Request: fold
Amino acid sequence: MFDILITGGKVLDGAGNPWRHGDVAIKGDRIAAIGNLAGQGAAAPLVIDAAGLAVTPGFIDMHSHSDMAFLVNPIVEPKIRQGITTEVVGQDGIAAAPMAAEHTARWRRHLSGLNGDPDLPWDWRSMGDYLDALERAGVGHNVASYAPHGNIRLVVMGPDDRPPTGDEMVRLVALTRESLQQGAFALSTGLIYPPCCYADAAELAALAAAVAAEGSFFVSHQRNEGFRVLESMTEMLDAGRAGGCPIHFSHFKAAGKANWHKLPAMFEMLEQARGQGLDVTYDQYPYTAGSTMLSSLLPPAAHAGGTDRLLVRLADPAQREAMRHAMQDPQAGWESMTRNATWDQILVSSVASETNAAVVGKTVAAIAVMRGADPYETVFDLILEEKNAVGMVSFLMSEESVRDVMRHPYQMVCTDGLLGGTPHPRVYGSFPRVLGRYVREEKVLDLAGAVRKMTSFPAQRLGLAKRGLLREGYFADVTVFNPDTVIDRATYAEPRQFPVGIEHVIVNGVPVVSAGRTTGRVAGKVLRKGQDI
Reply:
């Protein structure tokens, strides 16, 4: 007797093989058998009729920002309703752990525009402590974490804009290795975010060597995704070569219309790197707009010393003027996103206070008109008034470029969505959007290939030996969807809409979505690199 029997579905194993009719049996938290089971008399107390439906491994979200969300509510419904059974937090080099007590208050303020600032004790210090906190809280689906470079730098050096001393470099390397040994799957950096953006080539190479020593990989939100995207790719690829570790690019793109033509050169760089023996991959969200903190529009020097110093600078008219000039400088070595998008392509997605609630969902251009100010002053004022807790959505890519990035063999799928305010629709719709729009409607990918990019390929990148495939003995993370109807419903105007067509989701053998509705069951595991997970 099995616990769950999924019968008559189109079984896609996750390896890229074409579907085949069959049944999937689950016993405990494992897949027990696959084949013509019902016809041979197999039985279970729960039988799911999957006739006409696709039965696949659970989807793996390679880039998410649910770091705090799980600690508030273990069931992150926007993710499991997409068919996601595992997601990866600790992204962009700026996340929850490790953390030093003396920096906790300022770091919470710094991240509030990214992850919010829920009423939590923040009493963890190491990566292991944070993962333990997740386990105590319970997680509705599986969670893995990267070790964030910015946190590691903050613990060792504080928020300063400078290179590490020799002793500090030793400590950066040691804390990186310790975080990986405690269960982080990779090191992440966000080279547009302080304090990660203060790192130079020598620091990146040393960290890459630490990553290699732990048998892991280096994940990067690269320093520039627009006018200097090729130079920024070179920076990370060189770090991988110097340190001897694989490189994974976050939310791969060419940002800004003036840079869309660079995609072929970007793909050629990836091919050359792999031809030279460097293992390179990337993830992508299937939308033309990105999303991050509004303060990422400001030059790196504005952030030196942390959020408190940033707010002091924003209160000084002379320093505001210096920021404006830096944002307009075409020779800037940092990524000025205001050169990649116009003010009517940047909208405010979240704020912390009720005072500015009316601006959420409006573009900076529209808010400037409302306030009778120019766009630069509007941005400066909002960040100051909200103490840096402002999220944004920015329209940077073309549909053609989204398709080109998606087709590439090194691509995986992610959401990369901020959960607060009026979120980017990718929080609710990324995986169904790929399956509905780009597989069924536009045929950018075939179904088996798309499922592989959502399951076994990210599992391979992470080193999850028993997830990402439908195989006997593997953990029973399973998604069942209707390939004829699956589609996202979330829009930029109304993003909090669940997709259709995701019928059943099973995490570690437990149904968390049944007939398209959440069951309320908490079934996830906190995954740690190197464990039987």
